[in-house]
Recover the amino acids of this structure.
């Protein structure tokens, strides 16, 4: 049974062993592999149908399996990787592109799948796109991608629990310019479609304002009844 493609309940997830024994680690590794597969299949060019994440990048992700740690060990790993920084409160995972394996907290079973997809999306993203997005916008787009993947597959897992404000901002941007423009910037570092959409949106707003002003000037004052 594929661990992600077939829906599970949160209760089923919570039934997993509380200690990191070999059986649990094997189960978590399966989630990680399917997360990579899901990312490659879910995000595609709407015209060509090709995956927005190259097979080369997906292969590199597969070659670096995520590491699942207890909450305490994850905080220690964060401090080590960041050369002494204290882990943020509530940290559920972090990733440094493809240089090192993604680090995911396994202490909170109901969040493990979401955190795995979130960190794997970071690794699938274009470094150029990440710098253009900025930290907050990229986190929002990443979490919105997780929500999309989980919701459309109706997996029954918790999603949308991280970066809620950033996710709402990402949703507004996607509604304004379309998902394709955002996904191409995120995965390909290609901002051309996004820039064109924003320019068109600005022109539309300008035309709308001009239309409002023109019609406001042409509206006659209502005539008072003669009596």
């Amino acid at each position: 049974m594929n661990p992600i493609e077939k829906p599970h309940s949160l209760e089923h997830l919570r039934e997993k062993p509380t200690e990191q024994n070999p059986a649990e680690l094997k189960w978590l590794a399966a989630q990680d592999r399917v997360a990579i597969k899901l990312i490659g299949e879910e995000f595609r060019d709407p015209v060509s149908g090709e995956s927005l994440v190259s097979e080369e990048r997906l292969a590199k992700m597969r070659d670096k399996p995520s590491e699942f740690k207890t909450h305490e060990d994850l905080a220690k790993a964060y401090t080590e990787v960041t050369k002494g920084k204290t882990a943020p409160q509530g940290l559920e995972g972090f990733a440094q592109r493809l240089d090192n394996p993604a680090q995911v907290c396994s202490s909170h079973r109901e969040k493990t799948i979401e955190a795995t997809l979130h960190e794997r999306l970071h690794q699938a993203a274009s470094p150029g796109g990440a710098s253009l997005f900025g930290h907050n916008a990229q986190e929002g787009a990443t979490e919105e991608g997780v929500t999309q993947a989980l919701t459309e597959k109706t997996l029954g897992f918790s999603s949308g629990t991280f970066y809620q404000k950033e996710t709402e901002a990402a949703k507004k941007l996607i509604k304004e310019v379309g998902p394709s423009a955002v996904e191409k910037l995120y995965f390909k570092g290609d901002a051309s479609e996004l820039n064109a959409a924003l320019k068109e949106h600005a022109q539309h707003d300008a035309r709308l304002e001009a239309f409002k002003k023109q019609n406001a000037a042409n509206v006659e004052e209502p005539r008072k009844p003669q009596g």
Summary: Strands lie at 67-69, 93-94, 103-105. The chain has one domain: 10-217. Residues 1-18, 219-227 have pLDDT under 50 and may be disordered. Residues 10-217 form one domain.
